[in-house]
Design goal:
The complex is a heterodimer of chains A (109) and B (115). Chain A is mostly beta strands and 109 residues long. Chain A is 0% helix and 53% strand. In chain B, strand 7 and strand 8 (76-81) form a beta hairpin. Chain B has 115 residues and is an all-beta fold. The chains are: A mainly beta (109), B mainly beta (115). Chain A binds chain B through residues 4, 8, 32, 41-46, 49, 87, 92, 94-102, and chain B through 32, 34, 36, 41-46, 49, 57, 91, 93, 95, 97, 99, 101-102, 104, 106-109, 111.
Chain lengths: 109, 115
Amino acid sequence: RKEVEQDPGPFNVPEGATVAFNCTYSNSASQSFFWYRQDCRKEPKLLMSVYSSGNEDGRFTAQLNRASQYISLLIRDSKLSDSATYLCVVDGSQGNLIFGKGTKLSVKP
Amino acid sequence: GAVVSQHPSRVICKSGTSVKIECRSLDFQATTMFWYRQFPKQSLMLMATSNEGSKATYEQGVEKDKFLINHASLTLSTLTVTSAHPEDSSFYICSATTGTRYGYTFGSGTRLTVV
């Protein structure tokens, strides 16, 4: 089983749509969870950290289910500028980050 | 906020030559630097972890004699791809941390093409 698994997509949605991404991780000892955004040929940028209680940042909501080892990201009212690849990330044993392959989102006018 | 400067952003080199990639933390001291590699349509994969003043720890399958990492100061880490081959063509990116839980900062990445 891969350490972090995501649906690669692509997700093609119209502007204004709500879209949800899911992710599962294999290491039950993981403590830190993140969603990163990566634009084509660019470095990943932190979108938001994910907490057990769930957290929201504007149009973005992240949820964590430790029992199921499952992380989600919900984007409401999608904008064209949201088009990117969304990376599910968990912490590794050496303080590094373990990245999923990413889910590609394309928001169309 | 914390900034990591990575150079060069893009390099094309001939097979058999060596390429050095630098990562500098500009406004903080990076106790640990991570080097990742990303092939097209793949996830970022950790290559090695380096702590200032000590030898880097390489992930399984990464040749330490081919990918030389030097972390001589708290603000500079370098990755040298020696005797590069076309299969080394990839996106290389560093990440620095001060050791705090969420203190990860990424460089802007280096796209290496070996011809």
